[in-house]
Design brief:
The chain is an alpha/beta fold. The protein has one domain: 3-Layer(aba) Sandwich (Rossmann fold), CATH 3.40.50.1820. The protein contains eleven helices and ten strands. The strands form two sheets. It has an eight-stranded mixed sheet, with helices on both faces. The protein has a two-stranded antiparallel ribbon with strand order 1-2. Helix 5 crosses helix 6. It is globular, with a radius of gyration of 18 Å. The chain starts with 10 loop residues before the first strand and ends with a helix.
């Protein structure tokens, strides 16, 4: 059931007063079991490294933040091809926390299905002095690096996919709307993306308490709001969100989906009843989970 913001003071965004809007961009308010789930995901990532072995740790840029973990396909490439499909995962964490090490659990279903799993690290917004543009450029640069060098990793760049969660879904959508052009990639470089519980218009985020650590500017809001650049999106997108997501995260997904469909872009949504933000993100690592199944299905690896 859709949760409705309660009016307590002057409205600052649609039907939200300041407190309600702040709560709508604070996942802990709607997911009090956050720390339990994140701890579970860290433990699962450690088990993944025990089973698969430590990933290859490789740089994609010049800074100390620009690295990725590579878990290579465990089985032979599908259909007898010599190169394996690629999935690049972009982690969330409110733009502030998270990393490849904590996201290793998402690699296991990919490599077991015969694809390479790349999991990105990149600068966070605090390290960048409040600048989301630096994050966007690094993520877009990482996708370009992996695509351009796919064959060297034994990867098939004609089967290049992206998956991402929360603030990572925002960064992925930015890369798929404007980043590909900035990186001089082909318009159809990415064959599909699964974006879980993301943000696609920064206007309300800028009005929320996230502005305490993100130094929003008009150009940043404009350039890094993928919903405003629908015409540049050429990737089939699956948007996954849950009934326990905050009301704004649910609305952001619905509005982005509507904008994509209005522009006749290939897009679909998967709505997960009974899942909050973190519970839903955890399902990315489950080949039978809501987001995990959608990811494998999009890649043709179910």
């Amino acid at each position: 059931m859709q949760q409705v913001a309660t009016k307590r003071g002057p409205l600052v965004w649609r039907d939200f007063d300041q407190e309600a809007l702040d709560d709508a961009y604070d996942q802990l308010v709607y997911a009090p079991n956050r720390d339990i789930i994140l701890g579970r995901m860290r433990a699962a990532s450690e088990r993944t490294r025990e089973r698969l072995g430590k990933p290859e740790r490789l740089p994609y840029g010049a800074s100390e933040y620009e690295w990725f973990d590579l878990f290579r396909a465990k089985t032979s490439a599908p259909a007898g091809r010599g190169l394996a499909p690629i999935n690049v995962f972009i982690h969330g964490g409110g733009w502030r926390v998270g990393g490849a090490a904590e996201s290793a659990l998402n690699a296991e279903p990919i490599v077991n299905a015969g694809a390479h799993a790349f999991i990105l690290d990149f600068i966070n917004v605090d390290q960048a002095g409040g600048d989301l543009v630096s994050m966007h450029r690094q993520v877009s640069g990482a996708l370009a690096f992996i695509w351009n060098n796919a064959a060297g990793f034994g990867g098939d760049r004609s089967r290049f996919y992206v998956s991402a969660a929360s603030s990572g879904a925002h960064l992925a959508a930015c890369a798929l709307s404007t980043g590909w052009r900035e990186q001089k990639l082909p318009a159809d470089f990415c064959k599909g993306a699964v974006l879980v519980s993301g943000m696609y218009d920064l206007a309300p985020v800028r009005l929320s308490k996230r502005s305490a650590y993100v130094k929003f500017t008009d150009p940043m809001e404009r350039d890094l709001s993928p919903e405003r650049h629908i015409d540049q999106i050429n990737t089939p997108i699956v948007l996954v969100y849950g009934s326990g997501d905050t009301p704004e995260f649910q609305r952001q997904t619905r509005d982005f989906l509507g904008a994509l469909r209005n522009a006749q872009k290939p897009a679909e949504a998967v709505f997960a009843e009974g899942y909050n933000h973190f519970e839903l993100i955890e399902t990315i690592a489950n080949p039978y989970g809501v987001a995990g199944h959608a990811r494998l299905q999009q890649m043709g690896l179910v």
